[in-house]
Amino acid sequence: MNNIYGMLAEYEDQGTIFEGLTKIRSLGYKKIDIFSPFPIHGMEEMFMGKSLKRQSRKLSNTVFGFGMVGFLAIFGLITWVSVFNYPLNIGGRPLMSFPAFIPPMFEITILFSGITTVITMLYLNGLPKWHNPLFNSVKFKRVTDDRFFLLIYATDCRFNSTQTQIDLMKSNALSVEVILKD
Amino acid sequence: MVEKKIHIGDVVFPNIPGERDEFIRGGVSYGDVTNLVCRMPELKLGEEPKWWKIAFGISILGVFLFFSSVFCVIWFGIGMWGNNNPVFWAWDIVNFVFWVGIGHAGTLISAILFLFRQKWRTSINRYAEAMTIFAVICAACFPVFHMGRVWTAHFLAPIPNQMGMWPNFRSPLLWDVFAVSTYFTISLLFWYVGLIPDLATLRDRAKGTLGKKIYGFFSLGWRGSVKDWYIYEKAYLFLAALSTPLVLSVHSVVSFDFATSQLSGWHTTIFPPYFVAGAILSGFAMVQTLIIPARIWLDLKNLITIQHIENMNKVILLTSNMVGYAYGIEFFIAWYSKDLEEFQLFIHRATGWYAWAYWTMVICNVVIPQLFWMRRIRTSIFLTFIMSIAINIGMWFERFVIIVTSLSQGNVPSSWSYYSPRIWDVFLFIGSFGLFFFLFLLFIRFLPVVAMAEVKGVMKGGHCK
């Protein structure tokens, strides 16, 4: 029992997995995850609501924060270089020529925000993580092709290897499989 | 007599709003999409189709030409080129602007059309983004080698050095360095983020150990859980939102190189929007040139249908008219401003030494695309291909006209001089095409050319509600 990671059910399309998910949730299972070859819109808000909102706020805030860091850093650098450290007197024009600083400031702000977006996305999704117990399943390989999967984690309080298997079979799953820990 | 079978992807449907949404044809299932797209990357080495081998062989020759001309330019200096006094900028900068412009269509398709919720973009965005990245690589080569002493290229970046010297942040040439390098980095990230789920598909289907390892490494262990997709889509949206102003800024900054100078023909405020419209025109023409053979040879006619080609032709028509408007307004302002040098220069452009280049530009960029007002021509694959090449040529001449005519006949008549390229200019330009196609053919060979996960998401039944 202790070496079980969870139970994986395979579904044919997004309609059946949606019905399956509704059924499984009505039975009281909480620790569920869905895997699909493409994003199924509408599902995420249904059963992950609040925690997802928090995660996505984390993403927005980090990107905004680091975008500002980039903005201030390049503004500081340009100002320090052009006004104090290496002033160039070009026809007596003002050293603090802000409009001319806008293009590099804009570009660096975008650069910082873009890089932060990718890194934060990977961090929030726990990537890169090259191994996962699910990858031991041969059937799970079709998750990136045309099949949809529902996983009930063994840590769920209602998890019972025989009963869960029956529940999943009843939810129109094509197949049910036990996933072991490594 | 054998009846010629018309492919469903090539059939032009009547233009009824309700039926426009069907972008994937032939009743393909999710699995079929995967199989169609993965066929080429899953071939064993040496099993490639003949067209690929021939094209790859030619592109290797091009790469050889590229590196030999680069070597000559570094070894003997840029005196190898035809640049003279007063035409200090010539083919090198023409080619730089030409290649950067081509890149813009890729970002437009992947970012701006994404924000506008244009679902048809999913079939072509990966392809166009790859084009962007390779075009920017080709573009960056030209100004770098134009410096003459490439080993001092790091002086462009604000790096502390022993001389206590800093770059001038007020110079548009430095803005260019920031714009192009940011553009390249963000485009690469955007492309890679889009690739992650598709690389996972290749990882899961890979039979050989090497393929499994490489695709496995780059797909980062992607599983596609609900949460993964949610955060992923959010990040994708952010990248699209960041790329949209970025792509508009890049060609604007490129145009500042000219617009901030005092030279007649360059010193105009219309340059940024005019350059951006031209960039999108040339980029879409290049996408057409590349995608029309690819959809036939890679058997993707059901994924990249006539509808996609027609939609892109509409963008070409729009931007072509914007560019035509800019040509007209430039002339008008030259006359209306009562600036004698400016007006004289424009008369020279249209009737002087380079009139042939000017009229090539006008005919290819403005006159020929007007044919796209007719739906019969917009939906003709053969004519689209021919016209896209004509627009590519026209857009190259646009940059040539802007740069060379202004410099060769500047404000001081005593320093006027005719410019003509030397063979090394031509070699480097042809070589850059070799480099571009070399990278592109490698992309077609080893990576999925259509964003599978995105296409599946917009297929019928892609929503659970």
What distance separates the N and C termini of chain B?
A: 49 Å
Rg of chain A to the nearest angstrom? Answer: 25 Å
- What is the global morphology of chain A? rod-shaped
**Hey, roughly how much beta strand do the residues of chain A contain?**
5-15%
CATH classification, class level of chain B: Mainly Alpha
- The CATH architecture classification of chain B is Up-down Bundle
Largest sheet of chain A, in brief, is: 4 strands, antiparallel
Q: Which chains share the greatest interface?
A: A-B, 66 and 66 residues
Unreliable runs of chain A, pLDDT <50, ≥5 residues? none
Which class best fits the helix and strand makeup of chain A? alpha+beta
Average residue pLDDT of chain A = 87
Beginning-to-end CA distance, first to last residue of chain A? 13 Å
H-E order of chain A = EHEHHEHE
Mean pLDDT of chain B: 88
Number of helices of chain A: 4
Total beta strand runs of chain B:
0
Helix coverage percent of residues of chain B? Answer: 55-70%
Helix content of chain A: 40-55%
